[in-house]
Amino acid sequence: MAGVTSKGGIAIVSLIIVGTLYSTVWAEPEISVRDRKAAEVAITEKSDSASDEYVTHRTALAGEPLHLVFMGRSIDVPAMDRSSVNAITLGGAFYTPKQGETSATPIGALFINRVREEYRTRNVISGFVNDLEYDRSLGNIELVARLENNNILGGQREVVNNREIKSSDAVWGTVIASVGPGLRYKVAPFQTDNDLRLQLLGKVGYFYADRTDDTGPNLVLPPSTMLYGAKLRGRYDGMRRNLMELPHTGMAAGFDLDYMYRAKWADFGTIPEAVFTKEETRDYLQFNGYLMGVSGIPGLSEKNKLFLKIHGGVTNHKSADRYNAITIGGGPLPGETGDLSRADYPGTMFNQVLVSNYAMLALEYRRELAPFIYLHLRETFIWADRAAVTETNQFLFKSSTGAATTIGLDTGFFWDSALYLGYSWDSGFIRNGKSGSGLILTWSKAF
Length: 447
Fold this sequence. Notes:
Layout: H1 3-6, H2 18-22, H3 27-32, H4 37-44, H5 50-56, E1 66-70, E2 73-77, E3 84-99, E4 102-115, E5 119-125, E6 129-138, E7 141-150, E8 159-160, E9 163-164, E10 171-186, E11 195-210, E12 219-220, E13 225-237, E14 240-241, E15 247-262, E16 269-270, H6 278-281, E17 283-296, E18 304-315, E19 326-328, E20 353-370, E21 373-389, E22 395-413, E23 417-431, E24 434-446
Antiparallel strand pairs: 1-2, 3-4, 3-24, 4-5, 5-6, 6-7, 7-10, 8-9, 10-11, 11-13, 12-16, 13-15, 14-15, 15-17, 17-18, 18-20, 19-20, 20-21, 21-22, 22-23, 23-24
């Protein structure tokens, strides 16, 4: 949806950068320190074979006290509190050729995370797009409260053949509050972000839609309405993170089953014959799930990691429309526990790709180049029933496939901060058959 960013640089895009935000939980050690054990082991446990030396390397993990000799300097840092995080991320994504009429997207958001015995709260705040959660603990039982909003200013346009359809311009958004009971159990390796959760939430919200000066005369918008529904959400995170908060070992999985009912609804789409009928789209059921894991490579040290992630989602084809379709976006690769559910296709603009059904596979090799520098190479494959708008402004879903190759670098930076730089090449999924590239750069700092 290129109009999201081409009008006034709206652009505070929060939900696509949570992974980078959380990477600053170790603001000071990420930048300038590392566990000296890797260096000490290499000295004290020398082996005649290169493979033995590789096996003895130990990567420093998030949450550990660190001692490092780096470039002749001895640096000591005590264990850090990963249960209290304030961080900000700024940056941008750039596209060649343009995605619709957009060649760049600014990025910026505030991340606040607290984990206590009596409560947990996780908040991603950008003003236009926010995701706020507060969980009150009663032992293993919790009371969960959430607030989500997506209120992009200005009109949003769909794209066909990588060209914006001006007549599809419309202002629309949602605000949804959720509350309900949940179960949470701590799991190995028993860090701040390792748990098993199951939540059943009741949802109430509001959807609005309005025309703009560019909205086509034959485009009928749905009525603004109250929303009522329920969500069944499950999460498991058994992964251990490294110093840069990147997944280091273990597995994670999760799912969301959402039901939504639109109280006031009507036929909408194009005239004289509406594409979407009230009977088919008034309520809908949607499923999204993911499974991921990271492990070492036999015979090599912890400097070398393999990462696998599978994503999938299903919406009843007849009930899927422009306003409830599954969103696939780009941004830094997810790593923080609350961000793992995000379906990320590298090089994609925020909120651009809408799908009714999809399956995505990502395979990554990651190499530790230095105590606080990680290089990764990722290949992502996708199949989806993707939303498209025809020249006559008819909205439909059609099958599409694609692949993206990504090379990225996570590194510490000056002023106790961190950088992420990633370049992606897409075979044509993003631009309707035309290949292209994307570059993303983000700077993150905890405070």
